[in-house]
Amino acid sequence: MRVSLLFFGILKDWRGEASSTVELPEGASVGDLLEVLSRRAPRPPLDGIAVSVNAEYAGSSQILHEGDEVGLLPPVSGGAPRTPRFSVSDESNGTTSLTREPIDAGRIVAAAKDGEDGAVVVFDGIVRNHSGGRKTLYLDYEAYEAMAVKRLGQLARKARENFGVRQVTIVHRLGRLEIGETSVLIVVSSAHRAQAFDACRWLIDSLKQTVPIWKKETFADGAVWAAGEPFPAGFAILGTGAER
Q: For labelling alongside 102, which of 62, 109, 229, 233 has CA 20 to 30 A away?
């Protein structure tokens, strides 16, 4: 059977392409696929990655089928061709979206306010001019877009359910970002400030660990993919095919 492969971040650089296909025997699992890839030279950097099947996180034991789309996802950190904006909207509870346009934080925050709210908490992530003692020139963000916007929507719904906040809005920028530009904006509206603060902190921490968005940092003396934060337990798969 034939399955499609999608490569992101450092794995795309290793492969030299963003997508490919591979022939596998019927009944092969995600772990079997990783074993096939691990035998190639040079050996791919598979330790600690996560794998998706048809835009959903998958374990090493998941069985693959003809035509499946498998994403190989290095730890996320949130130059691809220009693509349409992906978004999921719920007029009563907010919006999650990916965009290649500048994020208008003031407009989004103003739209999030309602008469029943006692607090609006905002996380505005911006591009700084340094990292690890090196001068940053600009950043490039790329994503597994269909999966990323789905995951953003899941996080927004979970935040509303778990923290009891009224509305969640999340917008993440893709493409080239200059110093001082907003890369991610999270706006949480709630009747009470404590729930809004807790939900906003949980959202950015969860986004940085589980939403498939990667960051390439260009410095005055070179460029690297940001290492990213380790996936939470149950997401990462070791190069041997065993789940972490």
A: 229
